[in-house]
Amino acid sequence: MLQTDISFKRIQQLAIPAIISGIAEPVLSATDAAVVGNIKEFGIESLAAVGIVGSFLSALIWILGQTRSAISAIVSQNLGAGKLKDLNNFPAQAIYFNIALSIIVLFSTYFFVEEIFRLLNAEGIILSFSIDYYNIRVWGFPLTLFTFAVFGLFRGLQNTFWPMIIAAIGAALNIGLDFALVYGIDGYILPMGIKGAAWASLFSQAVMAIMALIFLLKKTEISLKLKFPLHPEIKRLVNMSFNLFLRSVALNTALILATREAADLGKEYIAAHTIAFNIWIFTAFFIDGYGAAGNILGGKLLGERNYSSLWKLTKKVNLYNLGVAAMLVLIGLLLYEPLGLLFNKDEKVLSIFYGMFFMVLICLPFNALAFTLDSIFKGLGEMGYLRNVLLGATVFGFIPVLYFSKYMHWGLIGIWAALIVWVAYRAVALLIKFRRKYIPLIGN
């Protein structure tokens, strides 16, 4: 069996398409935020609503979208072990598993949407806008999770090119539709405001799902015909997904608490936090491209039991991502003011944003290490440890710092200090685990 290629060229071949496909979801939310934030009437309230709903939807997508990583890990490990043909009916079962989960969650939230957003401190017109926006966007949830499941299969097969094509078209379509539906087109389309942004995202998600289906059927030999009995790997998928589910609950507890505390400070503060959060999410998915390469190749190397190359790969992708983080920090410093103006023109909102955006930039190098190692550990199937790390980071890192900063009246800077501690905790814990478990296996 040929050894897995971990050269600079091969890593770029996987990472660059993964970056483009990875930023599609944050581009949907960021575009919505930027477009509605510049509506002449109720721009601040619309931006605040998109921020609140966006954080909640991101939570749902991240919680259940983790099955993509589990699917990718299983497929890539079987590929490395030369057992790919043994998977037979696993892909179809995994996809239907994802769709079923999404439908359950959709209906468990749809009828309680007002209560959910009141818990996030939305009130008045912001609450009304949040409900309008969510009630449309939520129907894209099963479409996104279907697309994610297909992306997981492609990643396991060492292919990030097809997801890139799908995601790029979806993101471009969303941007065009946002402007057309939110502001309207004279003589053709009436302005729809925040509802237009929701419809733009939903339509884009539907197009991406259809394209994912076409690529799956035309470019692979995978069948979507559901056959029984259940494949033995489904048990491992469920186990991995359950651990990732618990992990994502902890992850999103932190993000939702951050949004809740920002909303409690006032509408200008939640608007400024929304700008910062959308930029942070965009950079996080940008950084995750090299993490995806580590995930894909790491799982295959584990299947081959090639621990020496696994260690080399880990060093390479972390170094590359630190370089990407440094580049993003530099861009953030150069575009410090234009980035705020892109989302909103209100002087108070911008003043608050400019007073805390440096915290987002400080967070980026920690993101690079934490997210890269996180992706590699997913490829290695270390879902239980990832769960424990996130629980620890949230309970012992994020929450104490968040409420201490609230007591000290540090405002958004305190909220983002808690997020930096939260990410740094994860980076250190994963570094320690890798050194203790995998480096000793080199030469075995």
Question: Could you explain how this protein is built, in words?
Answer:
The protein has 444 residues and is mostly helical. Helix content is 82%, strand content 0%. The protein has helices at residues 8-22, 24-36, 43-65, 67-80, 90-110, 113-119, 124-137, 141-156, 161-183, 194-219, 232-265, 267-304, 307-334, 336-343, 347-354, 357-379, 383-407, 411-437. Helix 12 (267-304) crosses helix 15. The longest helix has 38 residues, at 267-304.
Key features of this structure:
444 residues; mainly alpha; globular
If you compute it from the alpha carbons, what radius of gyration comes out, rounded to the nearest whole angstrom? Answer: 21 Å
Structural class: mainly alpha
Specify the oligomeric state. Answer: single chain
Number of E-type strands: 0
* Span between termini: 18 Å
Helical fraction equals over 70%
Low-pLDDT runs of 5+ residues are none
Query: Tell me, what's the shape?
Result: globular
Annotation field: number of helices: 18
Give a short synopsis of this structure:
The protein has 444 residues and is mainly α.
Q: What secondary-structure arrangement, pairings included, does this model have?
A:
Elements: H1 8-22, H2 24-36, H3 43-65, H4 67-80, H5 90-110, H6 113-119, H7 124-137, H8 141-156, H9 161-183, H10 194-219, H11 232-265, H12 267-304, H13 307-334, H14 336-343, H15 347-354, H16 357-379, H17 383-407, H18 411-437
Helix pairs in contact: 1-9, 1-12, 2-3, 2-9, 2-10, 2-12, 3-7, 3-8, 3-11, 3-12, 4-8, 4-11, 4-12, 5-8, 6-7, 7-10, 8-10, 9-10, 11-12, 11-17, 11-18, 12-13, 12-15, 12-16, 13-16, 16-18, 17-18
